[in-house]
Amino acid sequence: MLQYQIDRVEHQVADDRSLTGVFVIGPLDRGQATTLGNSLRRVLIGGLEGSAITAVRIAGVNHEYATVPGVREDVLDILLNCKSVPVTSRSRDMEIGRLVVNGPATVTASDLQFSSQVQVIDGERPIATVAEGHSLELEVHVERGIGYRPVDRHNEDTSAIDLLQIDAVFMPVKRVNYSVDETAVGEGGSARERLRLEIETNGSISPDDAMAQAANQLIGLFQPLASLTMAEEAGIEPEPSAEAQIPLEELNLSVRAYNCLKRAQVNSVSDLMGFSYEDLLEIKNFGSKSADEVIEALERIGISLPQSRTSA
User: Fold this and answer.
1) Shortest CA distance to 107 belongs to which of 85, 130, 86?
2) Same domain, 113 and 202
3) Which of 15, 40, 86, 137 is least crowded, fewest Cβ atoms below 10 Å from its Cβ?
4) Is residue 29 a contact partner of residue 55, using CB atoms and an 8 Å limit?
5) Are residues 150 and 42 in the same domain?
6) Are the C-beta atoms of residues 133 and 101 closer than 8 Å to each other?
7) pLDDT, tens digit, for every residue of 221-265?
8) Would the pLDDT of 157 be above 60?
9) How many domains does the chain have?
10) C-alpha span between 282 and 275 (Å, rounded)
11) Cα distances (angstroms) measured from residue 202 to each of 20, 40, 130, 165, 217
């Protein structure tokens, strides 16, 4: 199998604390770069677990179309600002952050007070502007999840009318681009390819860890196929016909023939169907007259026995 190398050729930290890493993977056989790049991109964008603010409670506000006295931004703007705050939570449970700010002040994400389980990635992200003589009291809920979760209006908790739900964007990877370049020709004249993969995260995870998690997800997805064994279905035996289930007593045989068959462990028509005419003659004390009697009785119900074992 062709061995390839992975080189990180670039690493950048932006002003908003987002991280960008560029990786070069190769050499690869023709077609493998596109397969690898497309698979990693799909998992990186929508398959990694992340954290996000999913709900906000603002003191004195019970719907998203309200305004807060002394606050420049309306409630919708505050919700959008909270939605864009990148956070990371190590807890599997919901975490709650709070802030109380007296004006004049510019409220930023760093003013949110969380437990040690939650970290705000970009503390300079603005939330609201409070005028002098006014205050803003805020509570945010942080959860972990995968992908994008829209607000389900039908499942909202009606008992907390002042809790404003937010469409949650849990995706820690913001952008993934890849390109394929041809490299030197390999043995036998076959072309080689090189994959250039650019990953940008929101800062809650490094590009290296993001790619490692995506690769492990793909390994887990394909691993069962590597040891695939299809168990053969057991053959289904045909059900015996109604005639074969007729007991021996209903053939109305003579006492001599009936007793001989019973001693030979023949109890039904299905048992007789395994015999030929020659087999019947080999039964102890069973002569040709009794054999002819059995043949005639079976023919009356539409069953015929072969003359010999070879003709069966």
Assistant:
1) 130
2) no
3) 15
4) no
5) no
6) no
7) 988 888 777 665 555 556 666 666 777 777 777 878 878 887 878
8) no
9) 3
10) 10
11) 9, 18, 27, 22, 20
